[in-house]
Amino acid sequence: MKLNKGKCRVLHLGRNSPMHQYRLGVDLLENSSSERDLRVLVDNKLTMSQQCALVAKKANGILGCIKKSVASRLRKVLFPDYSALVRPHLEHSVQVWAPHFKKDEELLERVQRRATRMVRGLEHLSYEERLREMGLFSLKNRRLRGDLTNADKCLKGGWQEDGPRLFPVVLGNRTRDNRHKLKHRKFQLNIRKNFALQVTEHGNRLPRGTVESLSLDRFKTRLHEVLYSLL
Fold this sequence. Notes:
Strand content: 5-15%
Number of helices: 10
Shape: flat
Largest sheet: 2 strands, parallel
Number of domains: 3
Order of helices and strands: EEEEEEHHHHHHHHHH
């Protein structure tokens, strides 16, 4: 296989990286501070801030085109356009690059806040009220719903062998309301800590009826009700 030297870069990860130099044949490869893979921009600090900025810029651009080209401001017109053309950019492979800085979360949320403000009759309501009127979740809660669903799938679904390793369950019967408490684990990297601790903390707060759902579909339905009550 022949490799194109112009398309090859070295991305050093970690604070203690020895920063070795690599060659492709006799050619020395250049170092890079960030690289894109499957539309996800990864930098050498794994912060994902650049990815969030690019995604928000792309989504805002498409939302601006919708605002200019669509005359109607009715919900039944704008919501399908937003769901089909804008929100997929905010959630494509988000399991990989989910923001763990508040400023990045707010940058993404601002896109949906702008979209809901475009709907006629909702301009003067707060963002939370607009979400409630439209029956929507915030992007943060949508990511949380996806994480909790995947965690439940790990424990009860098709990944039963890896589930206990990823989300160990507290043994014993000392817990009162939820018999499927997850253990809090320690991580040195913030990007791992954000996902694991968020799933653990919110999963342990779910009602017993939700956690003990016999099917994944039933779990999703009850989880939707719990999250919607938080709006």
